[in-house]
Amino acid sequence: MFIAMNRFRVALGSENDFEQMWLTRESRLREVPGFEVFHLLRGPAAEDHVLYASHTVWATKEQFEAWTQSDAFRQAHRDAGQTARRPSYLGPPQFEGFEVLQTVDKP
């Protein structure tokens, strides 16, 4: 299993625009081999931003990497940053990839 995360530092005052951009976008993830689950996370606020993360679980790292090279990926990201009310970011998203070593499920 592989977890792909992007962390976004969204400038204060742009939170609603950022959330609406994500919540109203067309997602094709369910059609992609290896995709398991997606979460959009809102984290703590700091003096100048709110921390958000996109959290996606994949069956394998190879399937995640194949998705990043696919037409589905290009289609999903073709309008990135092109919304009428573009949120303000403090720097680019920070990608973090994790190979899962242990999982504890609820019985």
Automatic annotation (TrEMBL):
GO terms for molecular function: monooxygenase activity. InterPro entries: ABM_dom, Dimeric_a/b-barrel, Heme-degrading_MO. Residues 2-98 form the ABM domain. Pfam families: ABM. Keywords: Monooxygenase, Oxidoreductase. The keyword Lipoprotein does not apply. PROSITE patterns: ABM. PANTHER family: SIGNAL TRANSDUCTION PROTEIN TRAP. This is Antibiotic biosynthesis monooxygenase. It comes from Lichenicoccus roseus.
